[in-house]
Each structure stands twice: as C-alpha cells, then as structure tokens.
Amino acid sequence: MDATDARLAAQYEAYPYPQRHPREEARRLIVGSPSHLREIDHWIFGARRPASQPLRALMAGGGSGDGTMMLAQQMAWAGRPGEVVWLDRSAAAREVAEARARARGLTNIRFVSGSLLDLPELGLGAFDYIDCCGVLHHLPDPAAGLAALAGALAPGGGLGLMVYAPHGRTGVYMLQDALRLLAPDTEPPPERVEAARRLWKQAPETAWLRRNPWITDHIDGGDAGLYDLLLNPRDVAFTVPALARLIEGAGLTPRCFVEPLRYDPDRYLNDPRLRARTARLDPVARAALAEAITGNMGIHIAYCTRGPAPLPDWEDPAAIPVLRELDGPALAKGLPADGMLRVTFDGLRVGVPVPRLAAAILGQVDGRRSLGEIGDVLAARGIAREAYARDLAALRAAMEPLNRLLLAAPPG
C-alpha cells in the first residue's frame, strides 16, 4: 500500500461506493454488465456448462454490493447451486452489502474482508467466474491485480472486467485537476466534497464535463458518486488496445467487449471505401477504431477466459435461446414495420435490421423452448425449415451483438 492507496482506502470507508441503502432492495434489483448470469453462461461458458453444476463466483472488490446482489439473486431465482464470494477491504462497504443481502434473504453469499492482491494467502480456492468491476483502474499496479485474479481461476473459468475508458469521460480529468488545487487530499473528505459541489455549481458552460451528459455520478450518485468521480486519488482510464494488452499480459483471452455491436466500426461507417479499410484491421484495431470515432464510451466491459473456450452453438437444436431483460412475445409484437430495430448507446442511435421471420421466432423465445422446438412450431405453421434456419442466423447476427439474444446453460 502506497500513500495514494491509503487515501483510496480511506475514501471507501468514508463513502462506500456506489451509494446504496438496504431499504431499496424491496423495490428493485440493479441489473447490468458484467456478471449477469445469462451473460456468464453465454460468453464465458459458451452455453455448455450445465446449470446443475455448482458455480463458484468471486466479486473481487465487491464494494457496496451491486454485482453481488445481482448474481446471487439470479442464481437463487433460477435455483442454481453455488456461492458468490464478496471480497473487499472496506469494512463500511461490507456493512452495506451484508445489510442488502439480509434484506433480500440471500444465503448464497459469503463475505470475506481482504484485498484481491492477497488471494493466494486468503485460501479461498479456485473460482469458476470472477468479477472485477471498477477496481483495476484504481490499483497501484493493474497488471499485478489482474494476474492475481487469473491465478484464482478454476480450469475453464473466466472473468468479467469493467474499467474506465478515456474518451467518454471527457471533462472528468480536467475537474479532477482543478480540485487537486482547490481541495487537496490533505483536507478531510467532507470538506473536499463540499468544495467539489461548489465547483460544479460554479463551473462555466465551457467546462467539458458540462457538455458530457453521459457522466452523471456527480449529479445523481450522492456524495459517494461525486467523491469517486472527481476526488478519487487514483483513476486510470484504458483505451481498447491498452485493455487488450492488460488482458493478454495476464495470460487471458478476450472473448468479447460488451456490447459487441458498439465495437464494430462498420455499424457507423457506410462508405464502402472506408469499410474496405476496416476489413484489413484485426479485431482489437477494429474495436479501437469504433472507440475513437464514437467518442462516447466511458467504460469498457470485457469477458475473458484463460485460453480458447467453446463458442455458443447456434446450430444445436437442443440449445435454448433466452432474451436478456426482454419478453419475447412482447418484443415480437413491438417490432417496427420496417424491420429495423433502433437502439441508442449513450446518445448514439444505431439501426439494426432484423429478418422477415424475426417476430415469429422471437414470439417463441420463452427460456424453455429449444431452437429445434421453435423450428417445429414454425414448421407446423407452414414455415419452411430452410427459411427458419436462414432467418434465425440473421436474427442472431442482429441481436447477439446487442447482448440481448443469448443461449442458456443446458439444464443437465
């Protein structure tokens, strides 16, 4: 622990992050990426790992518990065996996370106080899945942190990572510089928070953060959100190439960035001559190009494994398609007449074409029917098997990169 790290530890004791209250658990479950159970099944295990097999998950730097609550609750609702191990060195954050777990009645969470850098000494065993969300970019040595996590993976396991990205955080680092002058870290945290609030109210309209509507922690994240965004003593952002080097340096293989569609430059470039140039780029360079030309990515989320891992088999008739936070029949009824889904990523609107049979297929996706069974239903309605196979492939090409149409873990 260096002096900066000591200040960081003190920050999260004073302001557990994110700012949460256990009474809110009765009203909502915060859902996102990484570490959504359906994403883990699909992107990490290729929809091959049986749901009946116990899952050991580690939340490395679990904070006040958003990811822990999400994964543990999803496992409980689905009747999935296993445990989620919350690991963090903040006693204040642990108090909040434990209270949230009690409010939900979750019994599949184990709380451990400590640093992810101490994993070899903690004796926690190996994990099938590890979440490290919003942690690596605060470490003195992110590479050492990721190496420690990689060393705790069980064979066939994988990680979900989230780190800050520079372009979408335009304005943040400028105000951080200003606050180092106005409110040095030698002052008590409450005094620094007050100064930061006053500065935000007084910052002129030319301040770049005022022109960045997608960063809102200083507005709606309470004192913890403001402190974490503008007063954090160590905050490093990673471009796509830098994150890829970090992942590969730990002996890991990137499976995807989330959402994959956002990292495809051809989604934004229609000029055939430019597309001829993008076709010559490798996957990391293509993702880096998408990051650079969109300018609105404030974070990067990546799933990665140690070495090659099986891909989801969309040609397996026994595979079960699932929708993430979408209802199949309702989505089918709401598809636009022109066959174009319109999605927005931090202000950037993208059109995604879907095939003619999209509504018919999506109307049968209920998390129980297999791809083969859906084909049988459509065949009984007079839809040719060849047409179903063709449009299923097109629908998968449209919605899997949106991280919305995935394959479930096999039940057995």
UniProtKB/TrEMBL annotation:
<dbReference type="InterPro" id="IPR029063">
    <property type="entry name" value="SAM-dependent_MTases_sf"/>
</dbReference>
<dbReference type="InterPro" id="IPR013217">
    <property type="entry name" value="Methyltransf_12"/>
</dbReference>
<keyword id="KW-0489">Methyltransferase</keyword>
<dbReference type="GO" id="GO:0008168">
    <property type="term" value="F:methyltransferase activity"/>
</dbReference>
<dbReference type="Pfam" id="PF08242">
    <property type="entry name" value="Methyltransf_12"/>
</dbReference>
<protein>
    <submittedName>
        <fullName>Class I SAM-dependent methyltransferase</fullName>
    </submittedName>
</protein>
<keyword id="KW-0808">Transferase</keyword>
<feature type="domain" description="Methyltransferase type 12">
    <location>
        <begin position="60"/>
        <end position="159"/>
    </location>
</feature>
<dbReference type="GO" id="GO:0032259">
    <property type="term" value="P:methylation"/>
</dbReference>
